[in-house]
Amino acid sequence: MELNQYLEVFIEESKEHLQACNEQLLELEKNPQDLSIINEIFRSAHTLKGMSATMGYEDLAGLTHQMENVLDAIRNNRLVTTPEILDVIFMAVDHLEEMVHSIASGGDGKKDVTETVEKLKAIEKGEPLSSTAESEVAATAVMETAKQSTYDEFELTVLKQSMEQGFGVYEIEIGLRQDCLLKAARVYMVFEVLEKIGEVIKATPPVEQLEEEQFDEDFSVTIVSKESPEDIKGKIMKVSEVVKTIVRPLEFDEQNAEAVLDTAHNENEIESEPKPEVPAQSTGTDVPAATEKKSTGKQQGSNKTIRVNIERLDILMNLFEELVIDRGRLEQISKDMENSELTETVERMSRISGDLQNIILNMRMVQVETVFNRFPRMIRQLARDLNKKINLEIVGAETELDRTVIDEIGDPLVHLLRNSVDHGIESPEERRAKGKSEEGTVVLRAFHSGNHVFIEIEDDGAGISREKVLKKAISKGIVTEQAAAGFTDKQAYELILSSGFSTAEKISDISGRGVGLDVVKNTIESLGGTISIDSKENEGTIFSIQLPLTLSIISVMLVEIQKEKFAIPLSSIIETAIIKDSEIMNAHNQKVIDFRGKVVPLLFLKDLFEVPSVPSEDDFHSVIIVRKGDKMAGLIVDSFIGQQEVVLKSLGNYLTNVFAISGATILGDGQVALIVDCNALIK
């Protein structure tokens, strides 16, 4: 079978299962007694093992198999969850992620994981990983747990009464072929056989998990029957793809009130010989009708969604962008010709293409969870490295963003979170001294507001010291002492976003080796977003990021400067107005106006972009008030054309770093309009 065609699906699904393992392990760390979490992790690990073996990645399958054994021991009460065991499982998941990343990068997925495999084997056997007292206590707990009865009070009563009435009680271990494709069907057939010869008292794993195929190849059943062990074994072995059957008689221990193996009659323990390996076959007669029906139902549910290569969505988006350009052209032609039938047709086409645009944009939307889900593990490790206690809360992970934005936002968020953990949250000792709880809280929050998505990172740490920031900024030459004196608190805090600024007393790998947050700021602004900071000393800090929903199709205000057209993004515009010459004032050699009680500087775009113009004696000026954070500016243009949705196109490699221009668009009349970067103008 040609497996390359399945490689992409394998990589994507492996990443999903490993992420699920990470998330559930973090939950298990908080609730080590919750077996439902163990079952979820086991399910992901088991599926990953099967996929890896099928694709021929033996190292990946081998490590997952050993991890699965440990999880199986925990969920069957042969092991108890300890921090030491969790650390090894976390390490195994890290190795698995590296191997999958290697495969995704064109590698073979091979990695020497012998040390981790040996640790997992030691855990499975109940051996201590080290000579520490904690390990010895854990090992003792494992042995004590293993000695406990696996039957509850009701089951023990049934077993005791059955034995008193002359029935035989047997614990039967059954093994299926490793490559068995319909495990649930085989289990169903085994249970059909057992129910004809006796009464099933208990199954391990439970029946629900067996039906969902949440087990490896082996499972066990406790049965009450009058048939001999040989007959029981013979009937079970007739079920296809069963390769092992061990029948162990049980007796009731009156003193300890528990069911135990009948060790006095070892000759009654019957183990079958494995069947010869033959290719698995699935026929209509092998699978019960009820099982077939259930399987079909699952297939119907799974067909509601399909995986689409992102490159296909990019092609679809590019084609639609061309359609938007042609739509604008048709609207212009219709307006010029004044033909009613053409106008109606174009209006209908505009409505339909608008609906199509919404569908295509929604197809490209991805939940920010895909970025957020990597952070809990990172925070856990940082907290350990820094000897801090930190609780990460994630809110609004279902909030959606365009894929192009999602791809870029991950690294800035990593930097901001590391900054909050390293500089924001204090040590447990400091927090106690301040009357705070030892555990600090970092909240990662996402939500929609209008045509924007906001992502906030909030901590309840030490906050930002205004004096310390201003002192550092003055010493670095970022701001003068005179200017600093007039700064608001918010302006002072945002100085930490300046290039080369760092208040760290010593460089660390965690806080970014002294590199300031200017890299974060630049990345966010390149996405058409903004970042702001609010802080209260000894109470905490909030970093707030505002991002556009999508980058490719944007709403703009078209303006004219002489014969040239420019587009200004609506997301940056507060208001448009007409002002008189008499309203323009001068302050510090800068033309300004009074806008609703605030002094706003004016920029004449014809001068800024050096547009050839004829002197005008007009006393009125068209002005657009734009904003970036809490800063504003007024852009003077010749006239307003109106609002329009346009396709943002890059200027190309030859026109990189053009000041205050973020791209261009093709208008309905075929002209090219440059898109103004308001953030750069205000900066």
Automatic annotation (TrEMBL):
Enzyme class name: transferase
Top-level taxon in the UniProt lineage: Bacteria
Molecular function in Gene Ontology: ATP binding; phosphorelay sensor kinase activity
Keyword Transcription: no
GO cellular component: a single term: cytoplasm
TM region(s), chain numbering: none
Name the record gives this protein: Chemotaxis protein CheA
Organism of this sequence: Mesobacillus subterraneus
